[in-house]
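Researcher: Before we compare anything, I want clean individual predictions. No alignment, no superposition, just each chain on its own. First chain goes here; please echo the sequence and then give the structure tokens.
Model: Echoing the first chain and its structure:
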Amino acid sequence: MSKPLKQIHLAAHFPGVNNTTVWSDPSSGSHIDFRSFVQFARSAERGKFDFMFLAEGLRLREQGGQIYDLDVVGRPDTFTVLAALAAVTEHLGLTGTINSTFNEPYEVARQFASLDHLSGGRAAWNVVTSWDAFTGENFRRGGYLPENQRYERAESFLAAAHTLFDSWRGDEVVADKERGVFLADADAGSFAYADAHFDISGRFNVPRSPQGRPVIFQAGDSDRGREFAAAAADAIFSRYGTLQEGQQFYADVKGRLAAYGRRHDQLLILPAATFVLGDTDAEAAELAQQVRLAQVSPATAIKFLEQLWNRDLSDHDPDGPLPTVDPIPGENTISRGRASVRMYRDPVATAHEWRAKAQAQNLTTRELIVEVTGRQNFIGSPATVAESINELVQADASDGFILVPHVTPGGLDPFVDSVVPLLQERGVFRTEYTGTTLRDHLGLGYPGGHDQLAGVAF
């Protein structure tokens, strides 16, 4: 008997603090004008996507202690944008990256519970740690936490937030047309949580939301991050979009679930993926090269180089060969708090691989950076891209993809118009939404059951 086809999950990421967006493209729009977010979200919903993904921008970008303008430097507050989008969308999930390093559990839990209510059960939280001291200077505590402490705080943060979400059972609230919503249990919302990072107690003042808890995403790739995801996440925002690497990551993380009493289908693997479409594969390949050159300017190439080499290379010629010196191992001093291992597990070995590649293909520094930081996972005609996506999902290299267009806000439209119909024809992607919440879209269960909130309004 043949294996049943997996249903593909698709989402859309509105690019934020990155160098993905090609600002020189005439169709590139504002990243602060609300109309851009509305257009992008409505395109994703028209394509029947599971959710829209919004990053958090708490800082101006820096490297070597200096602000640089290679990409967009920030954006409006994540919760504000997602709450506003809840009013102009009906089905689309609303996912926000909120870090656990410079926030507090009560505040974040209250904001996500509110968003889940206001959106009718479409909220999701990408739990991340914040790595750089430059961001920390915006907050009272300042500084940054070493990697092991960041994950300890993240685990504690999420556990505290779950305590808050679960402080309401659901049957403690009664909806009355004349009196509104009132408590039927005097202990509703009572909580207490204490460990080495937090010592909080009180009353959580947002009733249990439609999903019980927001869908939890995680984006870390270290061993500690993978273990954190296996224990507590509903989905992973992965960077492994190729067949071999994707299958290895998929098998590794899914293989950790049993230790926490979880099934394979209780955690989704969703890599980030960019795309370039053309009428033919050849046309798409030519366009993809143009996009990459626009994304990686000479200055951008040097910044990427410094992140691996962990040293000032501002005098290096981007049109010349790679540096002959090796990267400096250890804590990254180019961007304080950002460990090199976050991107490269062995910087020296990676540098040697880059040199070999550059020599074999006769590449300059910039050309090499264009090659090794290539962001176009899917390049080709709509038929080619649809086939590639389906093959990767059916081969258990992922459960779907979070698409990142290189032009916003309109860059998602070509994919929705040309690739989505082909996936629908294959029977591997929905033609209509069948559920009302993001957990429904993703095929995830409900913490504490789904029927606890019948009749409750917020």
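Researcher: Okay. Second chain, same rules.
Model: Second chain and its structure:
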Amino acid sequence: MKIWVDADACPKVIKEILFRAANRLRIELILVANQSLATPPSPYITSIQVAKGFDIADNYIVEQAKPSDLVITADIPLAAEIVDKGAHALNPRGELYDKENIKERLNIRDAMDELRGSGLISGGPAAFSQKDRQNFSNALDRFLAKAKRSI
């Protein structure tokens, strides 16, 4: 099992949680971004820089991820591709996407895009909070514990 991170927009605090988990559990963690990323020295943590461009990092993650892998992303279309591939996706706020909820999330995302495009609403998600950080940490721990039991 590997953990892939859609790292361009991933909050720093989430990366730090992932760094600790990778080292503690000896799980390969791969951050994918279209810019250079600083990572702590570790045999379990790598950073891959892809070319700049729309969905280049997302496409790389989809190509590389295997069904046992976990992808950390706030990008719902990327999460949908990962779930369709049989892998797992977790957003930085702690929501685990699966076959039961990903279609609904895509529909909500598309509806919100339409509302923003028509000017009926503005803005994006709420600021990242301490509760979001805790929710992510708890969801990651639950996922990794379950994955470890199934190995």
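Researcher: What stands out in the second chain?
Model: The chain is about 45% helix and 15% strand. Additionally, Residues 130-150 form the longest helix (21 residues).
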